[in-house]
Amino acid sequence: MPITSSPFLLYSDGQGNIFEDTSLYAVGRSGWDVYPVPTEEWIPLPEGGSMYELPGRRAIGIDVETGDMRLCELGWAVAAFIPPAHTGLFLAAYETLPEAPTLPLFCYTAAGWYDDGFYVPAVRIESDIRQESAGFDETKVESGVATFLKAYPHNRLVRHLAENCALTYHCPAARNYFIGRWECPIPSSPACNANCIGCISFQPEDEQITSTQDRLTFKPTAEEIVEYTVPHLETAPYPIVSFGQGCEGEPLLMWETIRDSIREIRRHTPKGSININTNGSKPDAVRALCEAGLNSIRVSTNSARSEIYTPYYRPNNYVFEDIVESLKVVRSFGGWTSINYFVFPGMTDSEAEYEALRRLIIDTDLCMIQWRNFNIDPDWYLGRLGVAETGECLGMGQMLGLIREEFPALRFGYFNPPMERILGDYSADFAH
After folding, report:
1. Rounded distance, CA 281 to CA 295, Å?
2. Comparing 51-65, 86-100, 163-177, 360-374, which segment has the lowest mean pLDDT?
3. Which of 96, 330, 365, 382 could form a disulfide bond with 335, CB atoms 3.0-4.6 angstroms apart?
4. What distance in Å separates the CA atoms of residue 136 and residue 145, rounded to the nearest whole number?
5. What are the start-end ranges of the E strands in 302-410?
6. Domain limits of the chain?
7. Helix, strand, or coil here: 252?
């Protein structure tokens, strides 16, 4: 049921307690600006979501009586983390005090309190349930880890996925692998050819933030990759194996090993989909992987514009046009192409970005957009890019609608589709 009025503003007391301020309605942030959120865009906080205190930041709301914007002086602002498969439409609105620390690498969606529940401005962009918190049984994960470590006692990748990814960082992809289902991660490169400002696996020691997880420290062999991925493709429901994970650098730097792995995998099984998550920096390497049997590619980007992409990624020895070429290469082989599109309200939905995205879709014959929430401190991001004005914006809700209307064959989602979906079966919630 749609709500009938705006939710109330939330604030934290600094001790882990969250309260509503019934004198203020919650609002949303887009770029540097603050707006009322259309009531139809508020939804209950999805299961698996959580709330964050934003230290050193005063929440902004609309005065219930006067209708004017003003600060909440009662405590610190609050934001929501919304779980995978959902895309946020507005950022949390606040004023940052001079002494405020830089926020860690999470998403900061607006939130409010309505009728005894937390609400967020968001949409469910993906029907797949593969990373929903309710779908994980910790006992099964731990049992799977023990079984797989025993089955592959000398495989460094399986041990890395077990001890680091599944048990320490609770990576949903790794946890699914150890339960024997869906998408199997293949971290493959300890090095990277980009220096992303918001890198989740490596941050310089002098940086204001820390990475959220440790990066892979070794170069796996093709034998190690093939040993555990072939059984997954053979036995898992809706199987995918994916090179390129959050716990590594850029997989295309290991393209020879990946090529050899794909060839050997396909000697053993024709089943499932072989995917690479990448920055798309090496089109010639992507071509070699397609020749070996790569089925799909997901290229990550914060923008369809080179002038926004480059200062964030800070690429070494490649340019934005290379990632566009990589998408074209995969389509030329009949493969599936996605972009891992970092959604930042006020930037992603600007008129300039909208036009650039349209051109990218048309020029590359793009198959899918994965509308991913951008895990970054909003002030820090805009400051590092030198963005003082974000220009005219459509609003994320309207932008999603316009893109869907103009490109009805383009798929919206959050995850890499299995071969069943690539071949056209988008009708079922296949992960049930």
Report:
1. 18
2. 163-177
3. 330
4. 14
5. 336-343, 368-373
6. 8-124, 133-422
7. helix
What pLDDT, on a 0 to 100 scale, did the predictor assign at position 205?
52
Candidates 132, 189, 133, 181; CA nearest to 160 is 189
91-92 sheet: strands from edge to edge? 33-35, 28-30, 91-92
Cα angle, residue 237 at apex, residues 201 and 138 outer, rounded to 5°: 55
- Which H or E element spans position 297? strand 296-301
Fold of 133-422: TIM Barrel (3.20.20)
Q: Which pLDDT score is estimated for 308?
A: 95
Residue of 316, 349, 350, 432 lying closest to 123 (CA atoms): 349
Q: Are 125 and 85 in contact (CB under 8 A)?
A: yes
In total, the chain counts a number of residues equal to 432
* CA-to-CA dists, residue 241 to 170, 225, 269, 275, angstroms: 18, 10, 12, 6
Q: Quick one: DSSP state of residue 352?
A: H
Sequence-distant (6+) residues with CB within 8 A of 65 are: 23
Using N-to-C axis directions, what is the helix angle for 320-332 and 351-364, rounded to 10°?
40
Nearest 5°: the CA angle 198, 119, 22 is: 115
Average pLDDT, the chain: 91
Q: How far is CA 335 from CA 225, 264, 290, 360, in A?
A: 22, 19, 8, 17
- Residue 23 · residue 87 · CB < 8 Å: no
Distance (Å, whole) CA 317 – CA 195:
12
Closest CA to 412 of 367, 347, 373, 356: 367
Among 26, 74, 81, smallest CA distance to 51 is for 81
Q: What pLDDT does residue 147 have? A: 92
Query: Is residue 432's pLDDT more than 50?
Result: no
pLDDT of residue 5: 86
pLDDT computed for residue 202 by the predictor: 53
Q: Is 236 exposed, middle or buried (0-12, 13-18, 19+ CB in 10 A)?
A: buried
3-state class (DSSP) for residue 347: coil
Average pLDDT over residues 143-164: 90
Q: Given this model, what pLDDT does residue 213 score?
A: 58
- CA dist 255 and 240 (Å) reads 18
Tell me how far apart the alpha carbons of residues 173 and 240 are, in angstroms, rounded to a whole number.
Answer: 11
What pLDDT, on the 0 to 100 scale, is given for residue 390?
A: 81
Q: What does each C-alpha distance from 8 to 111, 307, 318, 395 come to in angstroms?
A: 9, 38, 47, 21
User: Per residue in 180-238, pLDDT tens?
Assistant: 889 999 999 888 888 888 775 555 555 565 555 566 787 999 999 999 999 999 999 99
